[in-house]
Prior knowledge:
Elements: E1 11-15, H1 20-31, E2 35-40, H2 43-53, E3 58-61, H3 67-77, E4 82-85, H4 100-128, E5 131-136, H5 149-170, E6 174-181, H6 190-193, H7 196-204, H8 214-225, E7 236-239
Helix pairs in contact: 1-8, 3-4, 4-5
Amino acid sequence: MTEPRRFEGQRVLVTGAAGGLGGAIARAFHDAGAKLALADRNAEALARVAGTLGAGIECHLYDQGELASLAALAEAAGDIDVLINNAGILHVEKLLEVTPEMIDRVVRVNLIGPMVLARHIGAGMAARGRGVIVNTASQLAFCGAEERAAYASAKAGLVQFTRTAAVELGRRGVRVVAVAPGRLLTPMTSYLTGDPERYQAGIARVPVGRYGTPEEIAKLVLFLASDDAGYIVGETVIADGGYVLG
């Protein structure tokens, strides 16, 4: 039996769509019948992802860390039924060595950007009385992490934003939820997977004994955005193979 095309006719905006996870999420919604709008700062990679999905894919170039660019994206995208607030950057550096400028950039991209975009897109959703926003947080929002102070702090802030936005927007017919992926086999984790010693050390911390795949998280995002998850509000679902528990 084939999977029902449960997003048929719905407009879905996926940010960070040129990345490993964003691309997998875009594919999942495409296969579920959604009308896709993909956004990223990498024009070449974005075109490549859109090309794998066939004709009719709407693409937008923007910078997640710039307020004007976020406003322009929201205006260009128009009415959106489902916002996948997925774009983010990872910076690995010791706290006493990272520059204030880099801390600012990481927080702007991973926390302020998603909040501002949710505000822009969520306004239209609230006016229509329906919509879903899925934020991409991280397992590191729930545990300490060396060399990732700015990233982990921003993602923890995104978890709290998910809760507070869910209370406000839920009364207007808009659901807000989040996912917190663990270590995935994507270009973002190449600094780990490309180093055999660090790779094995990383796997040793995951009870299931492996890294996750973008496709696994994409399926979870698809579920959370669907009517099947209609009573899940403000929650952040951790999908990390047990990393936080370990």
